[in-house]
C-alpha cells in the first residue's frame, strides 16, 4: 500500500510540474538563440537574417522580469567569454528592427532590468 501511495505522489508531482505555465529561460536558450550572431558581435558588419531571427525568438521567450534578468546575465557572461564588441552588441537590436527597452552595455546592472 505504501508503494502505491508513493507512486501516486510522484505522479501528482510530475503532473503539477508539467502543468506549470512557461519554462524559465536558461543560458543555453540564450546562447542557442544568439549563436548565429557571433560573427556580427565579434567582427561587426551586418547581422544575418538568422541572427535577427534568433534575437526576435529570444525576445519572444522573455516573458517575466526573471527571464529578462537571466538573459541579461547570460549575455554579459558570454560577451566577456567570446570577446563581443560593445558597439556591435548595442546596435544589434536596432539592426534587427526590435526594441529591448534597455541599453546593451558591458556595465549593465542586470538586477535593475525590469
From TrEMBL:
<dbReference type="InterPro" id="IPR036312">
    <property type="entry name" value="Bifun_inhib/LTP/seed_sf"/>
</dbReference>
<dbReference type="InterPro" id="IPR000528">
    <property type="entry name" value="Plant_nsLTP"/>
</dbReference>
<dbReference type="InterPro" id="IPR016140">
    <property type="entry name" value="Bifunc_inhib/LTP/seed_store"/>
</dbReference>
<keyword id="KW-0446">Lipid-binding</keyword>
<comment type="similarity">
    <text>Belongs to the plant LTP family.</text>
</comment>
<feature type="domain" description="Bifunctional inhibitor/plant lipid transfer protein/seed storage helical">
    <location>
        <begin position="27"/>
        <end position="110"/>
    </location>
</feature>
<keyword id="KW-0732">Signal</keyword>
<dbReference type="Pfam" id="PF00234">
    <property type="entry name" value="Tryp_alpha_amyl"/>
</dbReference>
<protein>
    <recommendedName>
        <fullName>Non-specific lipid-transfer protein</fullName>
    </recommendedName>
</protein>
<feature type="signal peptide">
    <location>
        <begin position="1"/>
        <end position="24"/>
    </location>
</feature>
<comment type="function">
    <text>Plant non-specific lipid-transfer proteins transfer phospholipids as well as galactolipids across membranes. May play a role in wax or cutin deposition in the cell walls of expanding epidermal cells and certain secretory tissues.</text>
</comment>
<keyword id="KW-0813">Transport</keyword>
